[in-house]
Design brief:
Domain Amidohydrolase-related: 54-408
Shape: globular
Number of strands: 20
InterPro entries: Amidohydro-rel, Metal-dep_hydrolase_composite, Metal_Hydrolase, Metallo-dep_Hydrolase, OTAase-like
Protein name: Amidohydrolase family protein
Pfam family, one: Amidohydro_1
Distance between the termini: 19 Å
CATH architecture of the largest domain: Alpha-Beta Barrel
Number of helices: 11
CATH superfamily of the largest domain: Metal-dependent hydrolases
Length: 413
């Protein structure tokens, strides 16, 4: 692979507040090989003058759903795989153009999509996926309406599923479903541990899965040297999930101070998803969201900003996530604008880079500008430590995007 030297750069390394200027970064074989405050010797390298602009790690979105092309998840079963894949290609391409060089698909993403990305068939960010979401009967990913008696989709007689999830009840079924998703290449396992606003039969306050079921799933993941992420909206579901071994909580919009302190003490992570909530409240009805879901959605929305304040005060480790569905995916960088009401630009930059890498169990490889990290880099025209809004423009302020050492956008040459 051709060597590339990025010269005259102001570098944010993913962690440090100080951003040294006049830096050079050598990239070869998909990795960063050298970061120096002096000119790098590489006679055969292609040299790019960054012009004093900010070079930083590519962004990481820790909560995406690549196939979720409609607000009604039941519609997606009828659309089938070709339609969902076409949507995923468009959505993932937009993510890359917006500066996201890594995404975690936390429900629905699968091995075929990951393989197509790895083989270069799809223009997309680096791709981690949780496979099918695990739900109990009547849980957040059981999309049957109350008048339906039977599951209509399944890959075997022992577990039923729809396009996004697997229904598992009892320890044995939870173990089997976990092992099956891990066999299919899932990088982690996602469970639903509270009710939600997008499913027909579970109120938000409802805790889901028993303690023995959650602990069984956690143990299976531990044996595979990976982790469990859990959909939790309420404080109670968040606390019990973390207590039972869940490593990463998704949403936590209704979290209270006591629970936030507990999460911080246990060293667990939280991935809030503000952009999804705000976009659904603003445009959900016109995009086809059933009117009877709006009350619950507004309850979560009205408390979500307070939840961010509570978690920041408690010192919870927070990563960047969006959870954008259907046509809302074009607002992927809006999360920066929403969170800036609570967090400093430095905190937001860490959330979108090095903290996400920690959850993915890729510290030092992703989310950093350091030797031996993957060469997933962006160049920002300006200083995001002073104006985080530079990253909230869907890539318009990015002069260079590099993924795995491959330049996918370049306005510098």
């Amino acid at each position: 692979m051709t060597q590339i030297v990025l010269e005259n750069a102001r570098v944010f390394d993913g962690v440090a507040e100080e951003c040294p200027e006049g830096m050079s970064v050598l990239v070869a074989d998909g990795k960063i090989r050298e970061v120096s405050d002096r000119p790098v010797r590489a006679d055969e390298a292609h040299r790019i003058d960054v012009g004093g602009k900010t070079l930083m790690p590519g962004l990481i979105d820790m909560h995406t759903h690549s196939y979720f092309s409609d607000l009604d998840p039941r519609v997606l079963n009828d659309r089938d795989a070709p339609y969902r894949t076409a949507y995923a290609i468009k959505k993932l391409g937009h993510a890359l153009d917006s500066g996201f060089t890594t995404v975690r698909d936390i429900g629905g993403g699968d091995y075929p999509l990951a393989a197509a990305i790895a083989d270069g068939l799809i223009r997309a960010p680096r791709f981690f996926y949780a496979g099918k979401i695990l739900s109990m009967t009547g849980g957040h990913v059981d999309y049957r309406t109350p008048n339906e008696k039977h599951h209509t989709h399944g890959y075997c007689s022992c577990a039923s599923m729809n396009w996004a999830g697997v229904i598992a009840d009892g320890v044995d079924e939870c173990i089997k479903a976990t092992r099956e998703e891990l066999r299919r290449g899932a990088h982690c396992i996602k469970i639903v541990a509270s009710g939600g606003v997008m499913s027909p039969s579970d109120p938000i306050w409802m805790n889901q899965f028993r303690e023995d079921e959650i602990r069984a799933i956690v143990q299976e993941c531990a044996e595979r040297r990976t982790y469990v992420a859990a959909h939790c909206l309420t404080s109670e579901s968040t606390r019990r999930s973390v207590e039972f071994g869940v490593r990463c909580v998704e949403h936590a919009a209704l979290i209270d101070a006591e629970t936030a302190a507990f999460v911080a003490e246990r060293g667990a992570y939280v991935v809030p998803t503000m952009a999804c909530l705000f976009s659904l409240v603003e445009q959900g009805l016109e995009m086809g969201l059933p009117p009877d879901r709006m009350d619950g959605l507004r309850t979560v929305y009205e408390n979500s900003m307070a939840g961010l304040e509570v978690m920041r005060s408690a010192g919870v480790k927070i990563a960047y996530g969006t959870d954008l569905l259907a046509g809302f995916y074009t607002q992927q960088t809006r999360e920066f604008e929403l969170r800036r009401e609570v967090f400093t630009p430095l905190e937001l930059l860490r959330q979108a880079t090095s903290v996400g890498a920690e959850i993915l169990m890729q510290p030092g490889k992703l989310g950093r500008v350091t030797p031996e990290a993957y060469a997933d880099l962006i160049v920002v025209d300006g200083d995001p430590l002073q104006d985080i809004g530079l990253l909230a423009a869907e890539g318009r302020n990015l002069d260079l995007i590099m993924r795995g050492g491959e330049v996918v956008k370049n306005r510098l040459d």
